[in-house]
Amino acid sequence: MKRIISVAALLFIALMSVTQPTLAQNDLWTFTGEEAQAQTQSTQANSAGVTLTEFKTVQADLPALEGVLQSAPLEFSGENATLTLPMPDSTFQSFTLMEAPVMEPELAASLPDVKTYIVYGTDDPTATGSVSYTPLGFRAFIIGRDGTVVVTQAETDDMTEFVVYNDADVW
């Protein structure tokens, strides 16, 4: 009887250790703690002249994020890639990702590090948005049934730190 309980306890612990991190992390993003939020909020409020009343901070695996973006096919090619983005409620949503160039070909050739993408929600089919990745950083703007979500690099020295918020939370 003790052996059955021990096996059941080990299985429970193993399942918790596998499933629990997915609530706060995926392959690209990891939600961070309260201390980082307070520091980021202060920085965001001072440099941008606005205050975020509610937001989350996340850490990005930049090489993995760049890999996903580089794998995105051109819009209307019939192919797509998948991008997962963090949400202000500490969840993640999946999006179909396609490169959507907005510059004239000559200008795009002179600025190869500036890329724009379009995303369509797979978890929330009402969600659509745009993503940009430039030497100044990564930004995503998603419009869905719950409003507009912004994912943008925090104004810190750490280029892997991001802020996620709803546009309604800008004061």
Describe the structure using short key phrases.
171 residues; alpha+beta
Structural commentary:
The chain has 171 residues and is α+β, with helices and mostly antiparallel strands. It has helices at residues 2-19, 34-48, 62-70, 105-110; strands spanning 29-31, 56-60, 81-86, 92-99, 115-121, 128-134, 137-144, 147-153, 161-166. Strand 6 (128-134) and strand 7 (137-144) form a beta hairpin. Residues 4-25 have low confidence and may be disordered.
Summarize the structure.
The protein has helices at 2-19, 34-48, 62-70, 105-110; strands at 29-31, 56-60, 81-86, 92-99, 115-121, 128-134, 137-144, 147-153, 161-166.
**Radius of gyration using CA atoms only:** 19 Å
Order of helices and strands: HEHEHEEHEEEEE
3D shape: globular
Low-confidence runs: 4-25
Please describe the biggest sheet, giving its number of strands, its sense, and whether it closes into a barrel.
9 strands, antiparallel
From the helix content, strand content and strand pairing, which structural class follows?
A: alpha+beta
First-to-last CA distance: 59 Å
Helical content class: 25-40%
Strand content: 25-35%
Give the overall average pLDDT.
81
Compute the number of helices. 4
Biggest sheet, spatial arrangement of strands: 1-2-9-8-7-6-5-4-3
**Count of beta strands:** 9
Strands, helices and their partners?
Blueprint: H1 2-19, E1 29-31, H2 34-48, E2 56-60, H3 62-70, E3 81-86, E4 92-99, H4 105-110, E5 115-121, E6 128-134, E7 137-144, E8 147-153, E9 161-166
Antiparallel strand pairs: 1-2, 2-9, 3-4, 4-5, 5-6, 6-7, 7-8, 8-9
